[in-house]
Amino acid sequence: MDSKDYVVSIGTVCIDDYITSSEWPKLGDKTLAEFKGYQVGGMPYNAACVIASTGIKTYMLDVIGSEFRDLIVEDLEKHNIDKSLCTYDNHKTMRTIIVNTKGERVIFVLDEDKKPEIALNKQQMKALKSAKYLYTNIPEMYRISDSTDLVKTLKKENVKIFYDIERTMLKDEYNIEFFMENADILSFNVEGYKKLINKKSEEFIKKLIDKNIKIVITKGEQGCELLRKDYNIKIEGKKSKVVDTTGAGDTFNGILISSLIKGLDIVEALEKANKTAALSTEYFGVNKNIGKLI
């Protein structure tokens, strides 16, 4: 691993309101719940913390609002995330409500459409062009002014692009075909991949695979799968005492990037990511320091 190998994670750093309940009520019913407090979160941010916990230099790039700013900055510093690429304004910080019931969770995203646009400055562009990996998702990438030009520039600079993709992110307005065709790794959960199949033809999937784009499907307790030209590689799930599945996908992606940077081949990296994601479900909330435990 080169000491200059680092990751830039682009995405909204938000505040998660954690709530636990012994049961999920039927529509119209009432149930008791407990507020467990605030945590700093967001999918790209959670993954960034996991990557940093393995010793890989990691930058966060976002526009941070005024609400909860001190808490967010404190958390960035606590998890050794370089915040020098972040900028600041007075927009309202995005919130999510995470309700945990018997180990599984439902997430409500508030104010999704209020994320500020990102106009990259010279410092941010310089850091991106020299990164080993850019980690983000397509809606977050779409926030960037001239994002298609950015992708073309990064490809010329041999920066690897890794997108995390969920079902709600597959909107035609995001020009998903362009972003996917210029990626290096696409990580889907099961529902996200099902929606991609429903939206796009098998020929589109084949086209991505023919371009040597790694398509990974995470399947929770059933493990994960890597799609390939000749045969798919399946990694069996690891047993765990599930407390909370929040952030398991972010953990998987973070460990996958870190492992590849450290020289593991793709199968070894997937096995390690799969094992660590299972381990992460044994903790309440996102264990951002899990890289120190493996």
List the helices and strands and how they pair.
Blueprint: E1 6-10, E2 14-21, E3 33-41, H1 43-53, E4 57-61, E5 63-64, H2 69-78, E6 87-88, E7 95-101, E8 104-110, H3 122-129, E9 133-136, H4 138-142, H5 147-156, E10 160-165, H6 176-181, E11 185-189, H7 190-199, H8 202-210, E12 214-218, E13 224-227, E14 233-235, H9 248-261, H10 266-280
Parallel strand pairs: 1-4, 1-9, 2-7, 5-6, 9-10, 10-11, 11-12
Antiparallel strand pairs: 2-3, 7-8, 12-13, 13-14
Helix pairs in contact: 1-9, 9-10
Your description of this structure?
This protein has 294 residues and is of the alpha/beta class. It contains 10 helices and 14 strands. The strands form 3 sheets. The protein has an 8-stranded mixed β-sheet, sandwiched between helices. It has a 4-stranded mixed β-sheet with strand order 3-2-7-8. Strand 7 and strand 8 form a beta hairpin. Helix 1 crosses helix 9. The longest helix is centred in the last third of the chain and has 15 residues. The radius of gyration is 18 Å and the shape is globular. The model has no long low-confidence stretch (mean pLDDT 92).
